[in-house]
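Onboarding guide, step 5: your first structure request.
Type a short instruction followed by the sequence, for example:

Predict the 3D structure of this protein.
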Amino acid sequence: MKIKPFKGIRPPKELVTKVSSRPYDVLNSEEARAEAEGNEMSLYHIIKPEINFEPGTDEHDPRVYQEALSQYKRFRVKGWLEQDPEEKYYVYAQTILASNPLSGGKDKTQYGLVVGAWVDDYLEGRIKKHELTRKDKEEDRMKHVRTLNANMEPVFFAYPHRDDLDAIVAEVVKGAPEYDFVAAPEGFRHTFWVIDDKKTIARITEIFAEIPAMYIADGHHRSAAAAGVGQELKIKNEKLKIKVPEYEYFLAVCFPENQLNIIDYNRVVRDLNGLSEEAFLEALKADFDVEEKGSDIYKPQRLHNFSLYLGGKWYSLTAKEGRYNDADPIGVLDVTISSNLILDKILGIKDLRTDKRIDFVGGIRGLGELQRRVDNGEMKVALALYPVTMQQIIDIADSGNIMPPKTTWFEPKLRSGLVIHELA
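The system replies with C-alpha cells like these:
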C-alpha cells in the first residue's frame, strides 16, 4: 500500500471538544442542528451546512455546498482550524470504556494510524470494499470535496495486523497525547498523538509498502467520492509538473484488523405476511430448530444462531444442517441465511434496500430496542443476528463479492474534525 504523511489541519487543543463531531452520515439534519445549537465552532456547520438554513432546506441545494466552503474559510480565519507546518502521521485511539456494555467489563482500545491513502490503490482494487455504493450519495460527497478542496472526514480502513507497526504505535502512545477526551453523546474516549519523528514517519511508509491490501470497514461512499475527485484532479492537472500531488491521496484512519469491534445489525418487520404467530413459528421449523426462551432477552450465542422476539416472547433459532454453505463467503453469513429462509421465504421481503416493511437497528441500541419496537405495536417481529467477523469481511472482499445490505456495524465511529486533509 502506498501512503504518505500530510500537513494536517486541526483544532487547537483547547477547542477540540467544541470543533469535533460525529460523522455526517450517522445523524439527520435536525439532529445535527440540535447538537450544534449554541456552538458556532461545531464541525456540523461545515459537514452538515444545511443546519445554517431554514429547517427543511434541501441538503443538496447548491447554496448548501457554498455555505460549507464559507464556514470552512471562517474556521480557518478564526483559528478554530490550523495547519501543521510539516507533514506528519498521527495515531488515533478509540476506547470503549468499561462502563459501556460493549466493553465486556473493561476498557477496550483500538489504535489507528492516520495517513494519506493513495487514490490509485482504491481505483485498482488494493483498497478493497465489501458494500455497494449509491451514485447519488457518492455525488453528494464528491460535490462536498470538490467545493472545499479537502477531505473533511476520514474513512475507516482495516489492514492485516503487523507486529512492527504495533511496536511503533506502542512507542508513540507512551508520549503525551495532543487530544484526550470523552465525546458526548456516545460516551467513547478519543485520544490523538502527533508523530513528529522523521525516521518513524519514513519507517511507517516503508512498512505499509509491504502490506498487499487494506479493507474499507466504514465509509464506502466517502472512499468512492475521495478517489473520484482525486482522479478528476489528476486528469485535469496531468500536464503540471508536480512531484507528489496532494490530491492523489485522501484521508484515512487505518486500524489493525485484530483490534476492531464489530457489533450486530438487527432487523424488525411490520407484519407476518398474513400469517398468524403460530403459523409463522411453525413455518420457521422447516429450516430452524426453534426453542422458546421466555420473556427475558435472549442474545444469539454463535454463528447460525438467531434470536427472535414475537408476541412478548424470545425464541432461539438455530439453522439446520444443509441450510447454509460454510465454504461460500456469502452463504456462510447469517444475514444471508435469515434473508433467504425467513425474510424472503416466509415474510415475502425480496429487497432489503427498498421494502418499507422492514427496518434495521444497530446493535449499539441493544436488544431492548428490538423488544420496545415490537411491544409498542410499531413492529410485529424482531430478529437479532450474531455479529459478522472481520475475517468474514476480508474473505468477501478478497473474493470480489459484496456483503448483503445492512450487515456490518462498526463501533466506535470515527470522530470528525480531529484532522483534515487539503488536496492542494
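Each response can be followed by summary notes, for example: The longest strand covers residues 108-118.
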